[in-house]
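Hey,
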Amino acid sequence: MTDLPLDKAQMRRRYRAQRVRLAAADPDAAVRAAQATPLERLPGLVIGGYLAQGSELDPAPLMARLATAGRRLTLPAAADRSGALVFRAWAPGAPLAPDAFGIPAPSPEAEVLTPDLLIVPLLAFDRAGGRLGQGAGIYDRTIAALSGERAPYLVGYAYAGQEAPRVPMEPHDQPLDAIATEAGFVEVR
C-alpha cells in the first residue's frame, strides 16, 4: 500500500524543481500556451484566472485573449488561510492589494463572481486529469465549494514538462477537464 501524502510530498519536491528549470529554459512558453488554447472549446463567460507566482506558467497572455473575446475576468482572493477562495472581477491594470496569503488580489469592493471556467496553477498533471497542487488544498476546497452551485470547467495551466505518468489522487482532489501547455491543449473529460 502506498502512502499518498508521502508520494505527493516527494512529487511536489521533484516537480517544483522541474518547473523552475522549465521556466528558466523557456520564457516564451506562456505566450505559446495561450496561442495553442482553442478559445471556442472553453465554456463560459466568467473566467477565474490567477497571477503567476514564482515559476508558475503565467496565464496573463491567455487571460488577455479571453478578455478580447468578451469574457469577464476574475482573480482569486483569500479572506483567510483556511477557507475557500472567492473570485472578484478584475481587468488588466486594475489595482490589487495583498490577500490573506499575501498574494495580490482585487480589492474587497470588487464584485464577487462565480467562474464558469477556472485556469488553475499546478506542480504536476497527468493525462487522466490528475492535478498536483502546492499542498495546502486551497484550490480543492474552492473547486468543491464552487461545484455546489455548478461545477466550473477546470483547465490546468502548465509547462508540458510538468506532465507526470500518474498523479496520486485522494477523494478530495479535484480532477481537471483539460490541460493547456505550450505544446498544445488536451481535453481529458
